[in-house]
Structure formats: C-alpha cells, structure tokens
Design brief:
The structure holds three protein chains of three kinds. By secondary structure, chain A is of the alpha/beta class. Chain A contains 13 helices and ten strands. Classes of the chains: A alpha/beta, B mainly alpha, C mainly alpha.
Chain lengths: ~325, ~350, ~400
C-alpha cells in the first residue's frame, strides 16, 4: 500500500456522472478518478448508488449525464448526434437509389441492369443496418471522429481493457472451469468463422496457447488442477476465484470487483486479499473494489471513496475516511446530541 | 438467459402523459381506419363490418386473456392454449349436437337461454378441468426447468390435443349447431346487425368485467396478482402458489372454452387445427396489449379483430395471417411491453 | 422426480474424456467421415435383408434414407441455433423454403422467366444439372442472409418471445410464397426443376436412388464436420456462453449481436443446403412443403436426439423420420393384413403427431436432455429441482432451495 501510487496518472476518469431513473436520482454528479496501478474501493450504505455507478462505468446502462474516460478515450457518455447516425444508415442506399432513378428516367438504365441496381440498393441498406447493430470498433472510431457518439457496450469496455466480476456469481455454470476462462478470453483471441471452418493451423496454434494460458490463470487464482470441473460443482470460494480468473482472461488493465468477498469466511477473505495484492503488484493491474467487508477494504485500499444517496461524501486514504464525520454519520447515523 | 437491458433512454422521465398520448394515437389510427372504411364501403357496410370486427375481437380477447394470465403468473407461453379454444368448440358442438341432438336454430327464447347457459357451463367446466389437469401433470413438474422444457412440452400438449380431436372427429370440418338464430337482426341506422353478434360481444364483456372484478376484489384474485408480481414473496405471505397457479389455468381455460362456444355459434363449424391460428392471433393480441395485463389482452383482442376484418374487407384475406404476424413481430421488436404494459427492465 | 445436484465428477461429465471419445475428438474430421461411411454402407445392406426387405423394396429404402438425410441436415443446422446457442427458433422451415425456392429460380423454366435469365432452356438438362453443385453454396448463402435478416429483430428478445417471433416468421415466409403468384406461382408451386448431374454419370434420375444417396452422405459428412469445428472453436464457446448467461457473456467481451447473428446465419445456411437438395430431388417446390409441421418436426428431432450433440441429433432425426415414414406405414399394412380387431382400424400415419406430442411431453418430463445428451446439457436440464420437491423444501418461513449456493 504505497502512497505514491495515488499520484499516478489516472487510468479512468468519471466526470460528473449522473443517472436518473424517472424521478429518482441514483447517482448524482459523481467525479471519480482511478490512478493507475492503485487499488481503490467504493463503499457506502446499501442503496447508495454504488452498483448503479458501477453499471454506468461498465456500459451496462447509459448515464443521464456526465462522461467516463478510460485510458484517455471517452467511452461512456450521453449519446450524441444520434439522428445523424440514423441518416448515415440510409444515406448510401438513398443516394444510390436516387441515382438509379435518375438514370432510369433518362433512359440510360433499364431492364435487367436496373433490377441489379435495385438489388444493390437493398444490399446497401441492409449492410448499413447490420453495421449499425453490430457496431465493430472501427465503425465506432470513425463515427466518433465525426462527433457521433454512443456509449460503449459492455463488450466494448472489455475490449478496451476493463474486466469485471459480479456480485452474485455469474459463471457459465455448465461449462468447465477451463471453458469459463477460455470464454473470458474471447476478446483477445482471433479465431473467427473462417478459421474455424477450415481448421486453420493458425487457429489450432492459438487454441493450444489459449488453453495453456487458461491453465496459468487458474493456477494464479489457486485453482490448479480443477480445470475440468464443471463450474457449478465447485465450492463457493472456488467459484469466486474462477470468476476472477475469467475476468483476468481478457487481459484487462482495470479490474472491477463487485463484492468479491461476499459470503467468505475470514480465511478465504485473507486469501482474497493476497490475490488482489498479487494482481496489482505482479501483474500491474488497477483494481476498483465495491465491498462491504470493512476489514478487507481498510486493509487493502490505497484510497476509499464513499457514496451516500448517490453522492460522493468522502474520499481519501483509509485513515482519513475512517475518521470522517460524514462517513460515520452515513453508516451509523448522527451522533447523539 | 437474461435479456440484455436495452440501453435506456437515459433519464427521460416517464411521464404519465406518455400513456395517454399513446392511447390517443391509437384512437386516432382507429378513427382514421373507420373514416377510410366508411369512405370505401359506405356507412352501412362499414357498420356491419364494425360489428363483425367486434365479434371477432371478442373471441380473440377471450382467448388472449388466458395467454396473458398464464404468462403473467409463470412466464410461460402456453402453446396449447389456442387448442383449448378448439377443444371448447368441439365440446360445445358435441354437447349440442350429439348429446342434445340439436341441429339448427332454436327460436323458443326460454329454451334458448337455458340451452346457452347449459352449454357455457358444461363447456367451461370441462375446459377448466382439462386446463388444470394439463398444468398439474405437464407443466408443474417443469416449473423450475430452463425455459426450453416447458415450451416444448406445451407444443407437445398442443399436438396431443389436436390429434385426439382429429382422431375422434376426423380431419375435416365438423358442423356445430348454430342454435342462436342468425335471422334475428336489429337495425343500426341502415345497417343490419345480427343479434348474435351483440350477444357474443355482450358475453365477452361480461366475462371480462367479471374477471377484472375477480382479480381486483377477491382474495384469490389478490393471490394471483401477488404471485405474478413476486412468487417467493407471495409464498412467504402464505399464498398457496400451486393452488393459485392452478386456478389461473382454470380460469384461462374456461374463458377459452367460452370462446369456443361462441365461435361455434357464430361460424357453425369447427376443425381440429382451428386452435393453432387462432392461438397465434390471440397471442399477438395479448402481446399487443401488454403481456400480463388483462385489460391489455382484451384491448389487443379487439384490435386484432379489427385488423383482420379490415384486411378481409379491403380484399387482402389471404394476407390476413401474415399481417397479424407482422404486427406481432413489430410489437415485440419495437415495444415488447405492448400498449399498456410497463417497460421491462433487467431481470436477474 | 429429477435428480438434485449430482456432485460426482463423472456423472457431471467433469472428468476427462477417455478412449474412443478422446480419439474421435482428436481426429474429428476423419472419425466423422469414417462414421458416416460405415453407416452409409450398412444401411443399404440392411435394406436387402429381412425384415426390412419385406416392408418395401430395397430401392425404396435407399430413397427413404436419402429423404431422412434431408431432415438430418435440417436437424444439424437447427441444433446449432437451438442446441448450442440456445436460441429457440420455431420457424426454421422458412430457411428450408428459401433454399428450395432459390434453387427453383435458377433451375426451372418458370423461375428463369421470373429472373429474366435463360439457363434451363439454353443449357438443357445434362449441362444445366451441373448448376446444382454451385447452387448448394448459393442456396446456403441466400438462406444465411435471410437468417441474419430474420434474426436481427429478435436480438433483444428473451427465450419465449424469441420463439414466438421466429414462429411468426416461419408462418409469414410460406404465406408470402403462397400469395405472390407472379413471382412464385402461388399454390401450384414451381415445377420442372433440373435434377443434379455430373460429368460422366449424367443426370440423376428418379428411378436410381444411388446418386442422390451418395450425395447426401457427402453433404451430411461435410455439414457435420463443419458443425463440430464451429462448436469446438472460439465461436462455439461464445455460443455456449450466451446460452448460459447473456449478460455475463457480454461482460466478458463477447459481442452478443455478432454471435447470435452468426448462429442464425449458419443454422439457416444448413437449411438452405437441405432446401436445394430437396428441391432437386422432388423437382418441385410449393409452399405446403414448408409448414410449421416441418419446423416442429425438426425441432423435435433436435430435442429428442439430444440438444447440443450432433451425432445424437443426426441419429434422432434419422430414427424419427424412419419411424414416421416407414414404421407407421408398415404398422398400418401389417394390422390391415392380419386383421387385428381394433388396431386395424387405426390409421397410424394420422397418429404420428399424437405420438410426437406424447413422446415430447414424456421426454421433457423424464429425460429433457434427449436420448444422446451432450454432457453440459445434461447438467443443465437434469439438475432442476421439481416443483414437487420444492414444496417440501419450502418451510413456513419460506426458505427455498433456490437461494442456496
């Protein structure tokens, strides 16, 4: 737990993030930065808006206002210029259609050729719509350059380098541990439809390497040898570790852990602390933790941020936060007169 | 198996006015259609088609209610529900035709009333029994299984029902005694409207109001609502879940049976595969109105009736089913909550 | 009545594969080719032996095998969509129809006139029949495109809704074919399709079942190899992941949109291939070949055969088809001839859907993972606690088994 980590440049910057649900303001203008290679925690009483904030960071829901930048790239914000994007979808087809129409009127284009062009128009329209729903990364970057913006989806965040675990374990229960980790590796692998169908050598090499890496990750979290167990058959503590291994599989720079110690006994919690430290110290990850287990939080965090009723009420080192009167009030209520 | 939450219209406050606006739009559309109809067919025919549509719609509404209630309470699309309607049609025709030996219209009013009451009672009772039995033995064991299992079972049950009926009655249309004379008409303006239509619409409305009262005011109804909202919490409050679900099926099936009776009265024929198409359309109606919402199902039923009759009246009979399914797809894609439903959020 | 969480690794399929299955997995393609070849050789032999030879002549059997093969192809494709990716598609016959009609447009006089080309007339049957082979690919691609088109609106829908929408599409497509008289010849369908032909052998005929049979064996092998390769790849894992938990899959970097669309596209392409083949064999296409019955038959083959397991599904498809088209017919004949009192009056063919329905319900209640289950599917389906058991576990305080980890 070194203080100078906190002065590292931020890997994630959340600026005035707000999220409203109808009349209820779940997250209210929260500023939040995470310095690189730090372990920061987000705490607060139940209903403070931690999970909502988390979900905004991860692209699960859109913010009402504010933005999130990850590694200097704006990932999440209110959508911008959506109408323009809609226009973009129909424009190529429309233009080609108009051109065809003009040519047909002029008598240049007719019969078979006209039918072919009509077909082309249809293809263009369908193609653009497909592009719109699949939204590959290059499409998003090009659009961003023109000022059209849509928030990143969860899988985009993963590709950018953000990994997460879930509060209530969401493993792929009927897949084995190794398969879970390999699934987590999806965004970093390159096997695609064609290489699969042709069983190309490149794919086979990649798959073999992937399996080795999966075994490494399992060993890292302490699940060596349990690779072929079905995830649903693993004991609770192991399932939690497997979730972490799976999140690590995508080679994240930032790891978001949602109540990783829930349901753990003291010994397991200790192991978890050791694991998290290793992740930061050895692998150079930055970690954001939501937790209720105060011992864990106080013990491992470089910095703690406290939310209450959707607002940030305190932020600082564990000592500072522990003594902050507003924090005490939020958790324990106002001191007796 | 959870749906990805649609990236919500961030923070657009859900104004109650939105609902009102939607209904206004709907009314405007219906108004527009009515105007078109009058223009094309003349007021007289338009009025007749109006009642035609209402009659059709009443039948779909009755069937849709069963779909929506069952889905609301156990989140299962009861594929076999359309076939319950078909079974109802056959039960009523057996009762009237074979057991009572009737063939045509009955003009003696007290007798007619007695016969109608008896038919409804018998059919609805039998259907209720069938529905409860199916639930108990085919669906209940699979209540906690992944979605695929009960869905496939429902399809299997549908096939069983269709084929049992086909075994007994053959693959061709069977006649259903139209005991309600269709010569009885009243004049609405210059249009001739069969009293039978009014009767059917009336029956449907009465049943629907009865259902709303039951759900809203009785203890069992409250049990149904709470089970639909949160099954575990309802169980904690002492609600007997199994019985509540059974009763839901009972009522839904009885309503489908009623639909079968009026269908027989109106069209005079029944076929073993009537259930499939009718079921699909009724399901569209339920979805259109907002699945899980009984008022929505009724509304949806009438709308679908209008669409269908409208399509026929304008000469697109053959495309009728395609149009209805098209509506289904459009609703599910753009507004899965339907007209009166709520925006579905993420479910764990 | 089901098994509560079965913890032993072996039962859960958690152990390593051994012996035959391991070897088969390592040399997947070869084992498939070998397997199909063996089956493909045995079946005709059986056709010449009693009791099979008594039921119908050997050529009829072989023809029947080929027709069963069409359904095997369909079942393999649907297995990708339903069994692996978990997308409940109830309108699969639509893609079958699209493949068939695509072939009809290229390989029939009527179709040619609609497209404005002159293939059939100018090339004649022998040379024109060669068009069948590339059309297999074209049919697959066209069907795949429609798979994407029809799948796109369903992307945000959950299981039941997805099923109904696909059912709706499955109904709409034949209706469109039925009503577009100008383009599709409506109820009459399109006839006079070219049969496939090969350089030396010439045109396939209606009398000799062997060319079609062998072609089918090749197609089944090819499709099966592709299916296994896909499932054992990154894409296959992504499919399993979205099947298990879509949100978690997205949270782990899987672009659920792309993955689902690929599932639809690839599943549809198989149906497209089957459609082209079937059209070339029946030499007509008409809307009534593609009803919901077909969609549902294929679905039941997938479910009964063992979702997720390609060999299981193939065997299931074959068995069901044979039961349908041979056994029931034979039972009819048998009881007619021997004059059993009640049984001879029953038309077993009519009964087939009743039997389907019963079999499906029974399957779901007793063995939802199918006859030859994929170990994962078995875990998934067989560890559900029944409502009956849950009753006894729910105490007055309302603790339920569900909440436990």
């Amino acid at each position: 737990m070194s203080d100078n980590v906190l002065s590292n440049p931020p890997i994630l910057v959340a600026d005035q993030v707000t999220r409203r649900f109808g009349g209820l303001v779940a997250v209210n203008k929260v500023d939040f930065t995470i310095p690189e290679r730090s372990i920061v925690s987000l705490i607060g009483p139940n209903g403070a808006g931690k999970t909502t904030f988390f979900n905004v960071l991860l692209g699960v829901i859109d913010p009402t206002d504010g933005s999130v930048e990850f590694m200097d790239r704006r990932m999440i914000a209110r959508p911008e210029r959506l109408a323009v994007e809609s226009l973009l979808w129909v424009l190529p087809a429309l233009l080609t259609g108009l051109l065809a129409f003009a040519l047909a009127e002029a008598g240049i284009l007719s019969g078979r050729l006209l039918a072919v062009v009509g077909f082309l128009v249809l293809l263009l329209l369908i193609g653009m719509l497909l592009l719109a729903i699949i939204r590959p990364v290059w499409y998003q970057t090009r659009l961003a350059r023109v000022g059209i913006f849509r928030s990143a989806r969860p899988n985009d965040m993963v590709e950018a380098g953000v990994g997460r675990t879930f509060q209530n374990i969401r493993l792929f229960k009927n897949m084995t541990a190794v398969e879970n980790v390999l699934a987590g590796m999806h965004s970093k692998l390159h096997g695609n439809l064609v290489s699969a169908m042709f069983n190309s050598r490149g794919m086979r090499v990649e798959e073999a390497a992937a399996e080795r890496r999966a075994d490494e990750l399992l060993t890292l979290v302490g699940l060596r040898g349990k690779g072929n167990e079905a995830a649903r058959n693993l004991p609770y503590g192991d399932q939690r570790r497997l979730e972490i291994a799976r999140a690590l599989a995508s080679d994240p720079k930032l790891l978001l852990l949602d109540e990783p110690a829930a349901g753990m006994n003291p010994k397991e919690t200790q192991d978890l602390v050791a694991l998290i430290s290793r992740l930061r110290n050895d692998l150079g990850l930055t970690i954001l933790l939501i937790e209720h287990d105060m011992k864990l939080v106080m013990g491992i965090s470089d910095r703690i941020t406290v939310l209450d009723h959707g607002e940030k009420i305190a932020e600082g080192t564990p000592e500072e936060v522990r003594k902050d009167p507003r924090v005490i009030e939020a958790y324990l209520g106002a001191p007796a007169a | 198996m959870t749906a990805l939450p649609a990236t919500n219209d961030a923070g657009r406050p859900s104004v109650p006015a939105g609902r009102v606006v939607r209904l206004l739009v709907l009314l405007a559309i219906l108004g527009g259609i009515a105007w078109l109809a009058v223009k094309n067919m003349g007021a007289e025919q338009a009025t007749e088609q109006l009642f035609n549509a209402l009659t059709r719609g009443a039948i779909y509404a009755l069937i849709a209610l069963g779909y929506t209630m069952v889905y609301g309470i156990i989140e299962l699309i009861n594929f076999a529900h359309g076939d319950m309607f078909m079974v109802g049609a056959f039960v009523s025709l057996t009762f009237l035709g074979q057991i009572l030996g009737l063939e045509g219209a009955v003009t003696n009013i007290p007798l007619l009333i007695a016969l109608l009451a008896a038919t409804f009672l018998v059919t609805m009772a039998i259907l209720a029994l069938v529905g409860v039995t199916i639930e108990r033995y085919a669906y209940k064991p699979l209540r906690n299984a992944p979605r695929l299992a009960p869905l496939i079972t429902a399809i299997g049950v549908s096939f069983i029902l269709q084929n049992l009926v086909q075994l007994v009655y053959g693959p061709y249309q069977t006649n259903s005694p139209k005991i309600f004379p269709d010569t009885w008409v009243i004049q609405v303006g210059s249009a001739t409207v069969p009293v039978l239509s009014l009767f059917i619409i009336g029956v449907a409305v009465v049943l629907m109001i009865g259902l709303q009262l039951f759900i809203g005011r009785t203890r069992l109804g409250r049990a149904m609502r709470s089970t639909a909202a949160d099954r575990d919490a309802a169980a904690l409050m002492g609600v007997n879940i199994n019985r509540t679900i059974a009763i839901t099926f009972l009522i839904g099936s009885a309503l489908a049976g009623a639909a079968g009776v009026v269908n027989g009265l109106q069209y005079g024929v029944a076929r073993f595969d009537d259930g499939f198409q009718a079921g699909l359309k009724a399901f569209t109606a339920a979805v259109l109105g907002g699945i899980g919402n009984t008022v929505g199902a009724a509304l949806g039923g009438f709308i679908i009736g209008f669409i269908e009759v409208g399509a026929t009246a304008m000469g697109y009979t053959r495309w009728g089913p395609a149009i209805v399914f098209g509506v289904l797809v459009i609703v599910l894609v753009f507004r899965p909550a339907g007209l009166l439903g709520q925006q579905l959020g993420e479910r764990a | 009545m089901s098994v509560v969480t079965d913890l032993s690794p072996k039962a859960a399929g958690g152990g390593r594969m051994t012996g035959l299955r391991l070897t088969a997995s390592r040399h997947r393609s070869w084992s498939i080719v070998l397997g199909i070849a063996v089956v493909g050789a045995i079946l005709p032999v059986l056709a010449y032996l009693p009791p099979f030879s008594l039921a119908q002549p050997a050529n009829a059997w072989i023809d029947g095998y080929t027709n069963a093969g069409v359904f095997v192809l369909l079942a393999l494709g649907l297995n990708l969509v339903v069994g692996v990716a978990g997308l409940l598609d109830l309108g699969y016959a639509a893609f079958f129809a699209i493949g068939a009609y695509t072939y009809a447009y290229v390989a029939s006089p009527f179709g040619n006139s609609v497209l404005g080309i002159n293939l059939v007339e100018s090339l004649g049957t022998e040379v024109g029949g060669l068009v069948f082979w590339p059309m297999l690919l074209v049919g697959a691609l066209v069907a795949a495109t429609f798979g994407i088109l029809l799948g796109a609106p369903t992307l945000r829908l959950r299981g039941d809704y997805l099923a109904i929408v696909t059912l709706g599409f499955g109904e709409i497509v034949p209706i469109v074919f039925l009503n577009s008289d100008q383009l599709t010849n409506g109820t009459n369908g399109i006839g006079g399709l070219l049969r496939p032909s090969l350089p030396i052998i010439g045109s396939f005929s209606a009398i000799n079942p062997w060319p079609y049979y062998i072609t089918m064996l090749v197609l089944v092998s090819f499709v099966m190899i592709m299916c296994y390769r896909l499932v054992e790849s990154r894409l296959g894992r992504a499919w399993e992941a979205i099947r298990e938990d879509e949100l978690a899959a997205a949270a782990n970097g899987i672009n659920t949109v792309t993955v689902k669309l690929l599932a639809f596209a690839l599943g549809a392409s198989t149906a497209g291939i089957a459609g082209v083949f079937n059209a070339s064999k029946l030499v007509t296409v008409s809307p009534d070949q593609f009803t919901f019955i077909v969609s549902f038959t294929v679905l039941s083959m997938v479910v009964l055969g063992g979702m997720g397991n390609f060999w299981g599904v193939a065997v299931g498809a074959f068995v069901i088809y044979t039961i349908n088209n041979v056994l029931l017919k034979t039972l009819n004949q048998f009881f007619d001839q021997t004059g059993f009192p009640i049984l001879k009056d029953i038309d077993f063919i009519q009964l087939q859907f009743l039997l389907y329905g019963l079999a499906l319900v029974a399957m779901m209640l007793l063995r939802p993972e199918g006859l030859f289950p994929n170990s994962r599917r078995k875990r998934e389906l067989h560890t559900a606690i029944t409502a009956d058991e849950q009753d006894s576990l729910t105490t007055a305080e309302g603790t339920t088994e569900e909440g436990q980890r």
